[in-house]
Amino acid sequence: MLLVVDVGNTNINFGVFNNDKIVASFRMMSRTAHTSDEYGNNLIAMLRNNGIDKNEIEGIIIASVVPNVMHALVNSMIKYLGHKPYIVGPGIKTGIQIKTKNPSEIGPDLVVGAVAGYEIMGGPVLVVDFGTATTYVLVNDKGEFTSGVVSPGIRISAKALWEDTAKLPEIEIKKPDSILAQETISSMQAGLVYGQIGQSKYIINEMKRESGYSDMKVIATGGLGRIICEEVEEIDVYDPNLILTGLRLIYEKNRKNKPHLEGFGDTE
């Protein structure tokens, strides 16, 4: 089995694949510091809770946008699972060429999403990830990562509302029954959710217009993505496991190489 690990700004998402089928997924917070022993024990417990013995794990791949957790996390994999993981970063084989002005600036999460989106939908494809930040990545028909848009995610916007205003409370993020809100909580929910819906529609349509790919497919993922995708007809597919799938695909492209190699993106 393969363990894939997506280290985001809010959570560390784990997935276990048996060949190309995901058989388990779980997460822990990435903002809380842990030792390698804490990571290792928590990971083994979560594997066990999903009916997976640690000895069944045959390989590991990690993509991370949080450098501070990597030393302890990687050491936990080596110590408790007996495998040194692949680390997605500049140089690893992905099958996607990075055609932006500064390829080294592209986050590994964006590359992984691009790999999965292109594999599933073909190209051109727009990959939207509703994570801590909301990102939009365009991959053309040649499999080239050509452009991207990054905007504040819905949780960032919500946090700004209740932390930077004196009277607005912390709220549950959900779509209210109507945009015609009549009290504070539903007013905030309406602004957050309908604001993200409107932003998504505009950015998708504008990227289609400027790229000339008017019939481009759109695939989305991310924690709160399902709420948004239900209201955005421009999104063709919602796949909550898109990034985990992308990690599996990259691992398969590199499994014959030495696992200590780090890097990403075929940049030419």
Q: Describe the global form.
A: globular
- H-E order: EEEHEHEEHEEEHHEHEHE
CATH topology of the largest domain: Nucleotidyltransferase, domain 5
What Rg do the Cα atoms give?
Answer: 19 Å
Tally of extended strands? 12
Portion in strands: 15-25%
Tally of discrete structural domains: 2
Could you describe the largest sheet, including whether it forms a barrel?
A: 6 strands, mixed
- Overall mean pLDDT score? 92
Overall CATH architecture of the largest domain: 2-Layer Sandwich
Count of runs of 4 or more consecutive helical residues: 7
CATH class of the largest domain: Alpha Beta
- CATH homologous superfamily name of the largest domain? ATPase, nucleotide binding domain
State the end-to-end distance: 32 Å
Strand line-up across the major sheet: 3-2-1-4-5-12
Structural class: alpha/beta
Q: Roughly what percent helix?
A: 25-40%
- Low-confidence stretches are 259-268
Would you summarize the structure shown here?
This protein is of the alpha/beta class and 268 residues long. Helices cover 36% and strands 24% of the residues. Strand 4 (59-64), helix 2 and strand 5 form a beta-alpha-beta unit.
